[in-house]
Amino acid sequence: MVYLTRRAEFSASHYYHNPDLSPEENQRLFGKCNNPNGHGHNYTLEVTVKGNVDPCSGFVVDLKQLKDVLNREVLDAMDHRFLNKEVPEFLHRIPTTENIAIVVWQRLAPKLQQAQLHRVRVYETPDLFADFYGEP
Amino acid sequence: MKAYLTRRYMFSASHRLHSDAMSEAENAATYGKCNNPHGHGHNYMLEVTVSGPVDEATGMVCNLVDLDGFVHTKIIDRFDLQNLNTMPEFVSAVPTTENLCIAIYDILRRGFRFAHLEKVRFEETMMNSFEYAGGAELRH
Asked: Which residues lie closer than 8 Å to A94 by C-beta, 6 or more apart?
């Protein structure tokens, strides 16, 4: 089994707000991240896939295919977007780093053909990242 | 769904690697330049990884304010700009980064209640890093 990681970057804005909670409770929970006008990050995404090395090609996965899927399913949808308003999953789910990792996983997993998705890592800043391994 | 959250922190501290269980010559042979009696320092990069179900109401494994608050109060405020050899954690343990990993892990495990502690990772320099998950295997 060999693991292969592809890195990508996207820039997007978001804010944290739960409509089921009072404005005071939102403010207490989310602080500055609750500003409804949003704020932005340069996100770094790491997608790790695993599989056996194909004896013919020497690849775990065709990187071009992985890149195409990543561009189509994730970057086209999220790069230079306001996540809360423009990405359907975040209309009713708070776009925290954890949830972005889950959504990226859910978008990629059904589209990958050769290799199996192992981990999605999302850096919100160089000091903060979330990992998702598809665990329930 | 279970996710893992990792936060990076920095602190700077000095130390000297020296074991009372060894002779001066053995200490010098074992620790080399790190045995310099006057000590030396590092900018330590600490990574704390916690895990748990993503809360549906907040979208979070744990609130960063709680994690940052704990780490700043219980770790950074105590260790930053200190000599590790003078700290209670290292009265009977050599302040190698291995032992520093274990000491920091234990502080978090004993006191941090907002999510499950997964592991602690230190970079002592750009060339050396150390990880400790309380004896469990690491997940990569």
From this structure: A16, A17, A18, B58, B59
